[in-house]
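agent> Task received from the user: take the single chain below, predict its 3D structure, and emit structure tokens. No templates, no multimer pairing.
agent> Plan: (1) validate residues, (2) run structure prediction, (3) serialize to tokens, (4) report one or two observations.
agent> Step 1 OK, no nonstandard residues flagged.
tool_call: predict_structure(input=
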Amino acid sequence: MNLRVGVDLGATKIQTLLVADDDSIVARKRRATPVMGGPDAVLAAVQETIEQLLARADQPASAISTIGIGAPGQIDAAAGVVLQAVNVAGWDQPVPVAEIVGEMFGVPVALTNDVQASMVAEHRLGAGRGRANLLGIFCGTGVGGGLILNHELWVGAGAAGEIGHTVIVQDGNQCGCGRRGCLEAYAGRGALEQIARDHHAAGHKTALFALMEEQGRSRLTSRVWLDACLQRDELALELIAQAARAVGTAAGSAANLLDVDCVVIGGGLATRLGDHFLNDVRIAAQPVLLRSDVANRIVLSELGDDCGALGAARIAGDRLAQR
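)
tool_result: status=success, residues=323
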């Protein structure tokens, strides 16, 4: 059996899939991303997770033809280097991910941006099937974006689709990238957590941190945000509504510019919050859109947590076939 590995390397989780040539999933493995030790610790965790994935599927390492890795931040795909990933602890310098992982397993490794990988998967297998032009907005620890134009992934000079760093509020909230007013500063889970901590320290009541401790977490995960919203926690509801407004504003403005067939909303936070979050995004987009009917073309990701790893595996297989 000819198998590909897909890795979605995130700030909080490493999602790994073993994928057959027909894009069917043979096995899954997921673990938390190490928060200490920088790139060495994270890539050692990637190696361990792939080895556990192979053991789960009862397959030798020789069954792997290629590995695809979707990583956050600025990527030099041709060189296989993560230039910078501000949301991953310790990744503030270039890391030759493809070379390091390739030496671990002795196979070609294709590196791409995580949301670009997700959009390839959604275009071929998910919410964007049959559509030529797609925009993706993925809300996780940060906010990433990806573009499919005329059925092809559009990377521009290398970083096309970075809607998370589109400024939606002049002189607004500080973003992790160092600028102010970025979408990510209002809708990224990391930014939302910092805002929540500031409010909590100022004496605002919230169940968010009690829920975090109950679930044995050190961060406000997507599950914590969902549970707080289900409990009608006022601060959680306010901040999630703010995030939806920010995403809707950005989605509407981008749709006016690009006239895409579909805007796919994904990422751990948006997927976990589901239809309620989607509806709020559509409502926020409505007054921004030149054509109001486009709001109905803002949809949720269909592939959920598998999205990035599936797309990374597909990109790796395509690159191998082109050699």
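agent> Step 4: summary for the user.
The first strand starts at residue 3 and ends at 9.
agent> Done.
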